[in-house]
């Protein structure tokens, strides 16, 4: 049942109202900016006193995510509530939903934050996946199909940026990794022969309307997204079509409201399979902030407030480079700020920094969107930007 819609359509939460955000990371910060520019006020629930979103919010409720008093004050103030991170308590979202509109629902988040439930859901939605087995005991691992090796053992909960994962060539290695993970529930996935990876960010509105942004091709380094490329050449491929229709099928069957991202693998044999779902805006959708008529964060605001979805039309090709903490250090490990002047002298370069004070290896400090008139120009500018940043670039 859709409890957000009356006969006259979704009730509008008008500009000027308060919106609630559970989580204070960079996705929350960019959400605040988008919401504030539409005239909303944002209250952020986040325990870190100096978080990226907390410092730009109209109100920072500084408390743990599951603090009952804090959740109550969020729902008292805010007409609609959303979240920016996957490991939010699904139960907290469900209980907030008794008072307020919460998108996405605790139920949908509860499914996608658990790889076991997520994979079962994706499979029953008719979307292809890598072969996998559920591992809830040593016996499950001892009996797992030999065809799953070499594979990747992934903890079912609380993984991100490649954390909670181990590549395992053999069953013996898998048994070791399982013990190292402390025997938590896992999935064992067959290692796939990847040609490349793509993702699609889409929004599903309270009336069920779906809008997808162009697909991005993603390059990971050390398990962390490094480069997303949104090229004209990719958009025409049948993979993008398949990715969009698979993502829409997953969202519809989940009864999902909000912005979500689905990551896909393109295999060497040309097949497209789904990897995982993120129930929120995604790092690979940051290019929309500069290249698209509506960005993914504004789309999140529009869904939760009952405004019509914005146009996902993207005006030009784009490449996003993630700025990780290592960009703040030279080869000798000495602190050295990136050369912002040289970077921003390159035409088509847009810089987004998240206000994090301490650059650390692997920490997402910001990103750079690079725009251009065509694929070739964007590529050339991105190569220039990467050179200024001392970052490998070879697409
Ligand atoms: P993130 O939070 O960055 O999305 P994650 O920790 O949720 O990462 P996954 O998306 O499952 O982890 O995997 C991270 C990366 O590892 C993938 O983008 C892909 O490059 C590689 N990978 C994961 N599963 C497989 C597989 N079955 N076969 C080959 N490569 C894989
Ligand atoms: Mg992933």
TrEMBL record:
Residues 119-305 form the ATP-grasp domain. The keyword Cell division does not apply. It holds the Pfam family PurK_C. It catalyses: 5-amino-1-(5-phospho-beta-D-ribosyl)imidazole + hydrogencarbonate + ATP = 5-carboxyamino-1-(5-phospho-D-ribosyl)imidazole + ADP + phosphate + 2 H(+). ATP binds at residues 115, 154, 159-165, 197, 220, 275-276. Transmembrane segments: none annotated. Its EC number is 6.3.4.18. Keywords: ATP-binding, Ligase, Nucleotide-binding, Purine biosynthesis. SUPFAM superfamilies: Glutathione synthetase ATP-binding domain-like, PreATP-grasp domain, Rudiment single hybrid motif. One of its GO terms (molecular function) is 5-(carboxyamino)imidazole ribonucleotide synthase activity. Belongs to the PurK/PurT family. PANTHER family: PHOSPHORIBOSYLAMINOIMIDAZOLE CARBOXYLASE (PTHR11609:SF5), PURINE BIOSYNTHESIS PROTEIN 6/7, PUR6/7 (PTHR11609). Catalyzes the ATP-dependent conversion of 5-aminoimidazole ribonucleotide (AIR) and HCO(3)- to N5-carboxyaminoimidazole ribonucleotide (N5-CAIR). This is N5-carboxyaminoimidazole ribonucleotide synthase. The lineage of its organism: Bacteria, Pseudomonadati, Pseudomonadota, Betaproteobacteria, Burkholderiales. The gene is purK.
